[in-house]
Amino acid sequence: MMGSRLFTVIVTSALLAGCATTSSTPVTRSNPNVITAEEIARNPSTSAYELIQRLRPSFLRTRGAVHGAPSGGVNNIESVDLVVYLNETRLGGSDQLRQIPTSDIQEIRYYSAADATTKWGTGHSAGAIQVLSR
Fold first, then answer.
1. Is 70 helix (H, G, I), strand (E, B) or coil?
2. What is the pLDDT of residues 98-113, one digit of tens each?
3. pTM
4. What is the tally of structural domains in the chain?
5. CATH number assigned to the domain comprising residue 92
6. Which runs of E-coded beta strand occur in the chain?
7. In-domain check, residue 122
8. Is residue 50 part of a domain?
9. Which of 51, 111, 117, 130 could form a disulfide with 45 if both were Cys (CB 3.0 to 4.6 A apart)?
């Protein structure tokens, strides 16, 4: 008797859980490679560099590129800077982010080396950051 009662409770619970309605609000997943206007508005940073440093420091990570092996057989590793774009205009390296005030920014996007090369061509071995202005 006790076993059938427990079985009934389990089956009823499972049926009720299956019939439960879900929220009609869609679940949005943020893109880790994008700093949105909402995030920018909530952050008290003064420059694009400071904003990225606070919200997505991995965008500014120094990358190394191997440049041939010298006669000693050890690879030379040079630090390679990413390329910064304001809208579609190439500005230079990451130091240029310090010159862009947060108040002028709509969105910031990080592009991997492969994605940046596809979008803008060669010369993006460390990736790129695109700042989209208001």
1. coil
2. 999 999 999 999 999 9
3. 0.69
4. 1
5. 2.170.130.10
6. 34-35, 63-66, 77-80, 83-86, 89-92, 105-111, 128-133
7. yes
8. yes
9. 51
